[in-house]
Amino acid sequence: MPRTLFPWIGVFAAGAVFAAPALADRDPRWVEDAPFYDDLAEAACFGDADAFFNLSVGADMSRNPVALTNLGLILLPSADCDRGSVPEDRAWANQTFRLAAERGYGRGMYHWGLVLLEGAGVDADPMAGLGWMEGALEEGWLEAGFVLIGALASGDYGVTPDRARAERVLAQLETTGMAEGDLNWLRSVVAAAPETQGTAAQTAQAETGAQDTGQPAASTGTAEGPFEVYVTGGHGQDFPQLGDVEPIGSNFAKETVFIAQWFYRNGECWVPSGHFLVGNAFINRNEYAAATLEDLLEGSNTYRANGDDGRFVTHFETLDDGIDFQFRNPALYDDGLPLLWTEAAANAWGPPCERTPVGAMVVYPEPVRAPGY
Question: 20 to 30 A Cα–Cα from 207, which one of 38, 103, 176, 287?
Answer without folding.
Answer: 287
